Amino acid sequence: xxxxxxxxxxxSDGWATDKTLTIANGxxxxxxxxxDHEAEVFQGAVIPGMINCHSHAFQRAFAGFSxxxxxxxxxxxxxRTIMYKFLAQLTPEDTEIxxxxxxxxxxxxxxxxxxxxxxxxxxxxxxxxxxxxxxxxLAIMAQAIFNAAQHSGIGLTLLPVLYQYxxxxxxxxxxxxxxxxxxxxxxxQLISDCYELSQEYPNSNIGIAPHSLRAVDKEAxxxxxxxxxxxxxxxxxxxxxxxxQQEVNDCLNYYTKRPVEWxxxxxxxxxxxxxxxxxxINEKEQQGIIDHNxxxxxxxxTEANLGDGIFPTTDFLALGGSFAIGSDSxxxxxxxxxxxxxxxxxxxxxxxxxxxxxxxVASVGQSLWQKSAASGAQSTNSNTGVLSIGKQADLLVIDDxxxxxxxxxxxxxxxxxxxxxxxxxxxxxxxxxxWVVLDGRHPKEQVSADKFAQLLTKLSA
Length: 461
Ligand code: ZN
Known about the structure:
The chain has helices at residues 76-87, 92-109, 140-152, 184-200, 218-231, 245-255, 259-266, 283-291, 300-305, 313-319, 335-350, 364-380, 410-420, 445-459; strands spanning 2-11, 14-24, 27-33, 40-41, 46-48, 50-55, 111-118, 155-162, 204-206, 209-210, 237-240, 273-276, 295-298, 323-325, 395-398, 426-431, 434-437. By secondary structure, the chain is α/β, with parallel strands linked by helices. The chain has a single domain, classed as TIM Barrel (Alpha-Beta Barrel), CATH 3.20.20. Strands 6, 7, 8, 9 and 10 form a 5-stranded parallel beta sheet that branches. A 4-stranded mixed beta sheet has the order 3-2-1-4, with no helix packed on it. A hairpin with a 2-residue loop joins strand 1 and strand 2 (14-24). It is globular and about 65 Å long. The structure holds zinc ion. Zinc ion is lined by residues 54, 56, 117, 240, 276, 328.
């Protein structure tokens, strides 16, 4: 048991001053007024850690390698072809190096938990790692992700991806997709193996991710959901849903329904579902997501980088919707940048200001942070996202010297950080009650960065 004193802290019901937190086994077990004489003092204002609801870790090593234009002919689909060529060479060891480097970067900017949408399952030839080995080896790539999370100290929600087809109507997978493909039986075995791993690795859990409606059919998705539910009744289920207009058109052609519309009509959607890139969506579909208490996962920098489109965030919030944020392709790794883009795209569309607020919170920055952290926790079925008694101690300490002068009042602090700070303002990071970043540094950052640099040299040779 340990005590910490915060002069300023963002609790679940708003900013508070002069509080002592008691933390035991990673959980906040008491919050009392005043400074306990035994308490260690937080060296700045304290806010809850952010949850990254959507990550493809290996893509971090590829970020920046696909920005060479070809006369306006580039699109999400041409980017995907380049990405497939890149991933074809990655070993489990490479994947662990990339993921560990990425997760350290995430921690330093304030992500304390990540939902890893993991689809690189098989070896370079596309064979299952279990071939001629024990079945436990089926999860060898997943284990690389568990290792990376544990060594970095970030909380992990692993979402192995069910991927079976290259397009609507059970189209044969392409050569570039061979490392993703599992039969439904093999996928369920993989999930059982990953569930066992999650019991061994601290601060981790698993769910599943049917990749998209173009890659999975109803029968396989239903079997996979039932299986993971038999292991964990609240396991998160994430799906890429309507990222590209072409995907919507293909879905309409095949199912005569729009993607979100089809999903709501055909699957039992509930609060454990997270619809990633619900970008192209109408009002009826928005209402359907809200009626089923699901969350949308928005990845503003990746969606901008890939030319996906803009999710109608303010309309969705006005109807009562919930959103989480993700860094997806990791073209950028910063919750600040995701949230800034989320608000600014709405301002540009609506030609208005200060849009993502709450009834009782006037600060856009605070509103963005609290909404996305709380829904991120829901999307990962984790006991995180807010600071209150009974919640996991995942928290960030802000470096007061790096925030703008007008941030000397709590009500302006997150506005200053999200809209006006030019530097990383996160000083210390605690996950599950333990410090993982102190004074802006992670203890493994240099070793990890060196390994990552060596790997990039090899991969880009
Ligand atoms: Zn994705």
